[in-house]
Amino acid sequence: MDPAYYAVSRQYISEGTISVNEFTKISQDYDKGRSGEDVIFWAGETTELARLDEESIILDMGCGTGIYTVGLREHTSATTCGLDPSVGMLSQAKEKTHSIHWFNAVGERLPIRSGVFDCIFSSQVWHHITERQDTANECGKTLNTDGTVVIRTISHEQLRRKVVFEFFPEIMENQLRVYPSNEEFSRYFGEAGFTSINFQAYELERYQEASMFIEVAQKKLWSMFRPISQEGLERGVNELRHHEVTHPGKPIRNDESITLVVAVKGG
Fold first, then answer.
1. For 79-85, which contacts have Cβ atoms below 8 Å and span 24 or more sequence positions?
2. Measured by CB atoms within 10 angstroms of the end CB, which terminus of the chain is less buried, N or C?
3. Where are the alpha helices (DSSP H) in the chain?
4. Local confidence pLDDT in tens for the 267 residues of the chain
């Protein structure tokens, strides 16, 4: 197996996020933590920003259980591939559809010839990547002449406003450390030879039940919960349960705050 696979696993642990093996362990429940995401909307935005159609070839890099891979395929009817280092996550993805090409690999070592893709998409992946410059370089290599990278991530400004940190404040600093900043993304893709790097910020109003937050936190379905202390976890869960009692039937406003990084390779 490619040594980059092991490098990714070690780096996840050292950064306090999540290892490849841990992703496999949560793979059967993973989609529960993504149930509030508007996949159709993000597929539409990606289609427009990357100028995709049914003739396009798309890679979902770090596809996980294939939520966005399937969304992109259904929205565009394009040839679509999903790549992930976790066999368990890919197993769940394959159960969704056989019309997508799924394969096990890492972004730092894309097993693909040069100039294949029109778009490389990724959702909530880059804070897990070990060698980000190498990955940006690989994206540049495997995209066609005017291909586009679209990254669904959270900016540092957006992270600081996330409601989850009101209940679990100790994990915010870790997230600010592991998530690349807009400036870092500009550097990675600039050095990889991309001619245009832009950032589109979104705030989609969204409400979620306290019980959902509790399940996600206790099962650690979001990687941000991996470095939390047991004390911090229990404190946050108790505060969420208190919210359920004091605000019966009232969900928590948890807007989908997202930044799309759009990097165009250009001629």
1. 81/57, 83/59, 83/107, 83/110, 85/5, 85/8, 85/9, 85/20, 85/23
2. C
3. 3-14, 20-25, 39-49, 67-76, 87-96, 132-142, 156-160, 164-167, 172-178, 182-191, 210-219, 230-246
4. 333 333 333 333 334 445 555 555 544 454 444 556 889 999 999 999 999 999 999 999 999 899 999 999 999 999 999 999 888 889 889 999 989 999 998 888 888 999 999 999 999 999 989 899 999 999 999 999 999 999 999 999 999 999 999 999 999 999 999 999 999 999 999 999 999 999 999 999 999 999 999 998 998 888 888 889 999 999 999 999 999 999 999 999 999 999 999 999 986
Tens of pLDDT along 8-34? 333 333 344 455 555 555 444 544 445
Express each pLDDT in 245-262 by its tens digit: 999 999 999 999 999 999
**Phi first, then psi: what are they for 41, rounded to 5°?**
-60, -45
Specify the residue for token string 């056989």: 98
Q: Contact 196/136 with Cβ under 8 angstroms?
A: no
Where do we find the tokens 């993504």? 34
Work out the number of other CB atoms within 10 angstroms of the CB of residue 205.
Answer: 8
- Structural tokens at position 93: 């993805």
C-alpha to C-alpha distance for 177 and 169, rounded to whole angstroms: 14
Architecture of the domain spanning 3-156+177-207+256-264: 3-Layer(aba) Sandwich (3.40)
Question: Which residue ranges make up each domain of the chain?
Answer: 3-156+177-207+256-264
The structure's pTM equals 0.87
Quote the tokens at residue 166.
């009101």
